[in-house]
Amino acid sequence: MASIRGQFEVTGRMRTWSMGLIAVGLLAFLIGLFTRGFSSNAEEQGVFWGTVLYNSVFFMLVCNASMFFICVTTLAHGGWQVAFRRVPEAISAVVPIFGTIAAVVLLYIVFGVGHGGHHHPVYHWLTRGDDQILAEKKGFLNAPFFVIWTLLSIGLWSYLGARMRKLSRESDEGSMTLEQGKRWIWRNTVMASLFTVWFGLTVGSTVPWLWMMSIDAHWYSTMYSWYTFASSFVSGVALIALWVIFLKNRGLLEYVTEEHLHDLGKFMFAFSIFWTYLWFSQYMLIWYSNMPEETIYFKHRVQGAWRGVFFFNLIVNFVCPLLILMKRSTKRNYTLMTFMAVLILFGHWIDFMQMVMGSVSKDHLTLSWLDFGILALYIGMIILFVGKALTKAPLVAKNHPYLKESIIHHT
Amino acid sequence: MARKKFVVGSFDDEEVLFPAVKKMRNAGYKIHDVYTPFPVHGLDHAIGQRETSLHTAGFIYGATGTITALSCMSWIFTADWPLNIGGKPHLPLPAFIPIIFETTVLFSAVGMVLTFCYLCQLAPFVKKHHFHPRATDDLFVMVIECTSKTNVEDLKGFMASTGAVEVNEQNVEAGWWLGRYDKDQKLYADESAAIA
Q1: Which of A276, B9, B91, B194 has the most beta carbons within 10 angstroms of its beta carbon?
Q2: Which residues, in sequence order, are bridge partners of residue B123?
Q3: Euclidean distance between CA atoms A263 and A271, whole angstroms
């Protein structure tokens, strides 16, 4: 085992690229902040903070999804992912950073964004007035609960994720006997179940309602959280695949073969279909019953300014994965998998954009330099922080009891 | 139907079977099939069978199902018998999608099962020759088809040298036929001694 080249190092080129992207992104953020964020025009304010909101939430959920990926495969006693398990671990190590950013953004939107007694530019349930519908929802949609639940969610994701990573690092020391291995698996399973339960209570139900659905405070859909989860999870798997391919191209991760890539491809395919299933279930029920308080969400998306984005979303996130990823040879091809992973990440970023911005700005498509600037900021941060997290541990968890199973994995 | 000559070798261990398969193929013999009591991982690649095209067939059946459902429903609801259902348009695509989906699944599933049965030559009353009764119990049975150019004695000797516990020569029906085992072909006639 001594000959394994198991340590990743951040190269100068990666550092240059990530710094450049972060600089561009920060510049865009600052220009946006001073021209729109602090503007007295509620609409401009809404667009700026909405853009910051969907980006910070999207990238945090995508990175958090990689810890969920580790936990569910652990609970299913899946051994195949052990060969590259350190990659999702490193991706999830940025959750505390992205979580802090998202928490600051969310709390600032609630407390800092001025509204001068009128409608709040993003969360209009904060200025409820004598609105009867919002008065009935005030047990859930109120500032104290929002703050507590946001901090609790992000804090526990970070804490439980850190515990999982710490446990994984502990296995690197020395070697394990059979008994130690069994005990380690047991502790790992317990931690994974704790994370999964908390993940289900937050991403699987409450948090997307609170952060994103509440922008349309009168409208509701119980499927919304599942939809958000599917979107972020398929993007999370795509991000894992991208990093695995990147490391593989650098001659690292020697135990990862195209069998592992094939299984990541299956995840990407399956959860693209799952996303479509939820998309369609939400859309068709609302379309069929045709009740004004429900169709209000789709009215301007299907018939108004967001029409193009609406159908683009469906083509990129459903038709392309369905037709391209269906073939076995695609899922085993590094080039095509890279292309599909980038496409899926981009597609679901667009999906998050239309979910948030389509509600903040109903009459205008808001896609502008600001969106791409903040996207660049987050890409730069992912390259830098995930790269740094990867250097902190050997890339192969050499004592993991299921490592052998992963090495001989065959789909 | 065509009767062909086969050389049949039985192996009692997977560990012996794999190198034997490799040696046989390196020596230039084409393996007709290997019958095993349980699925052996990687054997299909080792004996040089090509990837199945069943999934391509499945895709075609599925696409047929999609087109059938879509064209059928849109013809009925626009041309043949338009109905006003809840004020919806006559071509309500979202409402059609569940049915299109179900038809796609139905066509591809049933089509693939039937194709699979055809490829494996499985059907009621269809009979096939069994090369060795213990292939369903504890022996791995390798079957090699002889051509007019094959030197049968050489082949038998070579097969024994690769580790076969038992080698014999069978002149049997190669395909599948309708009928009854007891009338069409006497099976297991010379096997009772081997089992005992």
Answers
A1: B9
A2: none
A3: 12
More confident residue, A43 or A354: A354
Confidence of residue A409 (pLDDT cuts 50, 70, 90): confident
Contact A328 B59 (CB under 8 A): no
Contact A284 B59 (CB under 8 A): no
The one-letter code for the residue type at A380 is G
Nearest CB partner across the interface for B94, out of A284, A328, A410: A284
pLDDT of A154 higher than 90: yes
Alpha-carbon B156 to chain mean position: 26
Provide the pLDDT for residue B133: 83
Sequence-distant (6+) residues with CB within 8 A of B128 are: B121, B175, B176
In the predicted model, what is the mean pLDDT of residues B159-178? 84
pLDDT of residue A5: 59
Rounded average pLDDT over B97-107: 96
What residue of A is the nearest CA neighbor of B94?
A: A284
Asked if A290 and B41 come within 8 Å (Cβ–Cβ), the reply is no
Q: Does B40 touch chain A (CB under 8 A)?
A: no
> Per the CB < 8 Å rule, is B94 touching A280?
yes
Tokens matching residue A42: 């509620």
Chain A nearest C-alpha distance from B165 (Å): 30
With 50 as the cut, is the pLDDT of residue A2 above it? no
Quote the CA–CA distance of A165 and A153 in Å, as a whole number.
Answer: 18
Q: What is the pLDDT of residue B195?
A: 53
Residue B19 near residue B192 (C-beta atoms within 8 A): no
* pTM for this entry: 0.88
Three-state DSSP class for residue B3: strand
DSSP A410: -
Q: In the numeric block, which tokens belong to residue B116? A: 């699979």
Q: List Cα–Cα distances, B50 to A65, A325, B34, B40, B46, in angstroms.
A: 38, 22, 14, 16, 10
At residue A3, what are phi and psi to the nearest 5 degrees? -80, -10
Full set of structural domains in chain B with CATH: 3-50+125-195 (3.30.70.1110), 54-119 (no CATH)
Interface of A with B (CB under 8 A): 280, 283-284, 287-288, 290, 326, 328, 410
Ramachandran angles phi, psi of B19, nearest 5°: -60, -35
Encoded amino acid at B191, one letter: E
pLDDT surpassing 80 at residue B176: no
Each residue's pLDDT tens digit, A93-127: 999 999 999 999 999 999 888 766 677 888 988 88
CB contact under 8 A, A284 and B42: no
- Other CB atoms within a 10 A radius of the CB of residue B110 amount to 12
Q: For residue A247, what are its two tokens?
A: 């490391």
Closest CA in chain A for residue B96: A284
* ipTM of predicted complex: 0.76
pLDDT band with cut points at 50, 70 and 90 for residue A1: very low
